[in-house]
Design a protein that fits this description.
The protein contains six helices and nine strands, in the order βββαβββααββαβαα. The chain is an alpha/beta fold and 216 residues long. The chain has one domain: Alpha/Beta hydrolase fold, catalytic domain (Rossmann fold, 3-Layer(aba) Sandwich), CATH 3.40.50.1820. The longest helix has 12 residues.
Length: 216
């Protein structure tokens, strides 16, 4: 079986966790990389990172989760766990819960500061339209993990040091609760895949190669 690298956003949009299922000693040197967006996003959020990984010889798969404009599904049919308690996050006052529609939306005027605080003017202008509505049910549905499944997955966590959505303090709590093999820090806000795609690709490749060590 191919060794697989799955990159998922935890708790919110861009606090990135890299998951490498343990492979055999004969696993190929460059595993397949699966990029999974987080809340309020779709697969196109990885558009600047994907070609960099492919150029370095990785096969890359991007996934759009259901319940979004490009992957329609009634929001009340979607479920997943999401942390809903982060005292240092700046997103809270800008969330609009539309129970009748089964979605949570982020105030459009706040999206650039929340998701692209350290981006250039062009990126900040684009971000409001890259953020989509999030199905409401996933924000409150618990996920049950087991030691014999999730516990055996090799994990690497990339911290986003300037994050306004999932605060660095909550990221530290999450890693303490679920120990990882390696921690890497990228000096960006919540969307490193947009703000610093080269750095994001570098860190993904570092996580995909257990022989490499983080130097930052």
């Amino acid at each position: 079986m191919k060794n697989l690298v799955s990159i998922a956003s935890l708790v919110s949009v861009a606090s990135l966790s890299l998951l490498l299922p343990a492979g055999s000693a004969t696993a190929p040197p460059k595993p397949e990389i699966v990029l999974v967006h987080g809340a309020w996003e779709e697969a196109n959020i990885w558009q600047a990172v994907t070609p960099l990984l492919k150029k370095d010889g990785y096969r890359v798969v991007t996934v759009t989760l259901p319940g979004r404009p490009s992957s329609p599904l009634s929001p009340d049919k979607v479920s997943l766990d999401l942390g809903n308690s982060d005292q240092d996050s700046k997103i809270g006052p800008h969330l609009q819960i539309l129970k009748d529609k089964g979605i949570v939306t982020v105030e459009k005027s706040a999206r650039a500061d929340l998701f692209g605080l350290d981006g250039n003017d062009q990126l900040r202008a684009e971000i409001p339209n890259l953020i989509v509505d999030e199905p409401l049910a996933p924000l409150a549905t618990p996920v049950h993990l087991t030691a014999d499944r999730f516990g055996t997955v090799d994990k690497v966590y990339i911290h986003t040091a300037k994050d306004q959505v999932v605060s660095p303090s909550l990221q530290a709590i999450m890693v303490a609760a679920t120990p990882v093999r390696k921690e890497i820090t990228i000096d960006t806000g919540h969307t490193p895949f947009l703000i610093d795609p080269r750095g994001m690709a570098r860190d993904i490749e570092m996580a995909a190669n257990p022989q490499k060590t983080a130097s930052h």
